[in-house]
């Protein structure tokens, strides 16, 4: 199953009211179709079709996407709005939205629309879709503060090094995927929104792949255990553990105790996970995507909750802590809490 489908199912499954409303409305329509001679298939199609012209739908979608890009850039201005830090870092969630969510919403609240009729609505939606939060960090660093004669050769000057505490501001830009949009619609119109969205306004292919997710499939993730590419337990394999069959949530990579483990991509560290992972590191790369590194003998120095790590940074060492039968790294990728095959995100994945 592709990551796009995985994310769609995860989101839909969390909002049962949407599917209840859709089912109830569709049943009512089918009842009318069966019992009312005046009701026809064409009436059902008209009821579920976006009222706007396809060209207008595409134009508004393109305008909204451009506003997304502009708004993200406007949020990356902490150097100007929050001066005084030694370094500024940015973690940006995936940029995108489901075009049918937007089209269904506008079709309900505006009706037949074009770029002119919704130009005052789009900016406020974008501003609510993306929000910025700020985290301060400190790191002990060294800097050159001057030069002095070398004690062994006074004719030479050597740098004078001093330690200092660097203040770092991490700006995290989060995408909520327009998850607030249905609640903005008056209650008596929400069923109409559900019908539009369920049938995709009878234009299911108009926007192409409308749900944008991080493109990690091009090799943005690196292999976390260089030099060790054997996979002893692949993703999705069934194993008999603690008296019952279990489906493996990630992959297991055997390696000697103490082998260095590296972050697959940039993100924010958490050290909290289920006891079975033992000593572990969990890295949030976006609001929806997390990697987990389990069974470590120890974390690397400085790897604690809330720290930002960069791709390729040392985060720990191979061990056999937690529910483990030998030295290995358990590497897992979760999207919206759903286990996903790591092979989808690492270029030249070992086979």
Biggest pleated sheet: 9 strands, antiparallel
CA(first)-CA(last) distance: 19 Å
Q: Can you give the mean pLDDT? A: 82
How many strand segments? Answer: 14
Q: What percent of residues are in strands?
A: 25-35%
Q: Helix tally? A: 8
Q: Tell me roughly what share of residues is in helical segments.
A: 25-40%
The Rg value, from CA coordinates, equals: 26 Å
Order of helices and strands: HHHHHEHHEEHEEEEEEEEEEE
Task: Return the structural class.
Answer: alpha+beta
User: Which geometry do the CA atoms define?
Assistant: flat
Low-confidence stretches: 1-20, 35-39, 211-218
In short:
The protein has helices spanning 3-13, 16-35, 41-48, 54-75, 78-81, 99-109, 122-129, 190-199, and strands at residues 87-92, 130-149, 157-175, 238-241, 244-247, 251-254, 260-262, 267-270, 279-284, 289-299, 308-309, 314-318, 328-335, 338-340. By secondary structure, it is of the alpha+beta class. The chain starts with a helix and ends in an 11-residue tail after the last strand.
């Amino acid at each position: 199953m592709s990551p796009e489908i995985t994310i769609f199912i995860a989101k839909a499954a969390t909002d049962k009211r949407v599917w209840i409303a859709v089912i109830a409305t569709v049943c009512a329509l089918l009842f009318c179709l069966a019992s009312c001679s005046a009701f026809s298939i064409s009436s059902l199609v008209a009821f579920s079709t976006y009222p706007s012209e396809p060209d207008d739908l595409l134009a508004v979608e393109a305008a909204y996407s451009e506003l997304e890009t502009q708004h993200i850039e406007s949020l990356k201005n902490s150097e100007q709005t929050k001066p005084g830090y030694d370094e500024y870092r940015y973690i940006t969630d995936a940029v995108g939205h489901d075009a049918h969510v937007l089209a269904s919403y506008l079709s309900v609240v505006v009706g037949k629309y074009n770029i002119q009729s919704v130009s005052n609505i789009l900016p406020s939606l974008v501003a609510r879709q993306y929000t910025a939060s700020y985290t301060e960090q400190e790191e002990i660093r060294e800097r050159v503060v001057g030069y002095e004669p070398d004690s062994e050769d006074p004719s030479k000057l050597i740098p004078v090094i001093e330690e200092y505490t660097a203040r770092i501001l991490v700006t995290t830009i989060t995408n909520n995927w327009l998850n607030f949009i249905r609640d903005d619609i008056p209650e008596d119109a929400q069923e109409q929104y559900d019908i539009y969205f369920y049938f995709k306004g009878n234009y299911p292919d108009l926007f192409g792949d409308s749900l944008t997710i991080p493109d990690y499939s091009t090799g943005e993730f690196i292999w976390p255990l260089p030099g060790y590419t054997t996979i002893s337990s692949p993703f999705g394999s069934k194993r008999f553990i603690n008296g019952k069959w279990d489906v493996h949530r990630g992959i297991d990579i055997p390696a000697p105790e103490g082998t260095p483990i590296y972050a697959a991509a940039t993100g924010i560290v958490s050290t909290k996970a289920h006891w079975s992972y033992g000593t572990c590191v969990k890295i949030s790369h976006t609001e929806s995507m997390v990697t987990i590194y389990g069974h470590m003998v120890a974390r690397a120095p400085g790897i604690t909750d809330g720290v930002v790590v960069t791709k390729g940074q040392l985060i720990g060492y191979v061990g056999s802590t937690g529910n483990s039968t030998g030295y290995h790294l358990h590497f897992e990728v979760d999207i919206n809490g759903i286990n996903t095959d790591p092979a989808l995100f690492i270029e030249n994945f070992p086979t």
